[in-house]
């Protein structure tokens, strides 16, 4: 049986999910490269990209391929795989809300996107079945914003996996409800 607290949490999440498309349509941004369907992102290898990854409920496969390339494991010879597009949606939501709240575009800087299993094994503290290896995770900074504040935004939108670190934030679209600090 569901507790009262679990019921309320479920009801709130359901109402947010139902309202999300209306919110995304009702308010846009003044910046061409940032919005609920587009993302401005760079990686620590120096690559930068601004793309519309979705139009309505349809994903743009060509632009998703560009994002997959940016998410590649450039430290392991450029290995890449298809990244779960739900991750881009979560990041775009966080980026859009923060940009609107700060009244300036906020760049996402990806520290770690996809990782090969062999490289993941060399990272101290990395989970053996890391969402990074599955193409479902991102360690990132929002340029000019503390990771603690980014975590607050991510938490408010109910991202599935959320890790708080001193120098970056981790989000993923793996199983729901996972939270940790590193």
UniProtKB/TrEMBL annotation:
Signal sequence interval, chain numbering: 1-26
GO biological process, one term: proteolysis
Pathway participation: Cell wall biogenesis; cell wall polysaccharide biosynthesis
Gene3D superfamilies: 3.30.1380.10
Needed cofactors: Zn(2+)
Keyword Transcription regulation: no
Stored Pfam families: Peptidase_M15_2 (PF05951)
UniProt key word Membrane: no
GO MF annotation, one: metallopeptidase activity
Sorted UniProt keywords: Cell wall biogenesis/degradation, Hydrolase, Metal-binding, Metalloprotease, Protease, Signal, Zinc
Family assignment from sequence similarity: Belongs to the peptidase M15 family.
Protein name: Murein endopeptidase K
